[in-house]
Amino acid sequence: MPIATEIDRRTVLVADDEPYIGRIIQMKLEDGPYRVELVHDGRAALERLRTDESFDLVLLDIMMPHASGLDVLAELRTLPHRSGTPVIMLTAKGQEADREMAAEYGATDFLTKPFSPKKLLARIDELFSR
Predict the structure, then answer these.
(1) What is the CATH classification number for the domain harbouring 107?
(2) 73 — phi, psi (to 5°)?
(3) Which of 65, 92, 93, 110 has a 20 to 30 A CA-CA distance from 116?
(4) What's the domain count of the chain?
């Protein structure tokens, strides 16, 4: 039966340039019903999102090297196979302009760092229960 469980798990792409934060998110989500792919910059996130790989959710840090999370989000929304993918933006900057731009580009939610990994998991679980 473990194979069925693995198949049923939702896949989350996490893009965060802070390895420690990315790893904490990965461990918390993998303790739950999620598989996680972790990348550390915007370019790597775009490379993964341009593929046909199935991602049920994308978590994007706003401030990353090579392409910001907002740049990634803007391109993600132009990709036909990703246009409806939920995206949660993560940032150490809680500025209103970032929130407005993320909302304008189609972000599903926005969390300011530091955040509780437990709260993040609860938000993700809530998102998938709608």
Answers:
(1) 3.40.50.2300
(2) -60, -45
(3) 65
(4) 1
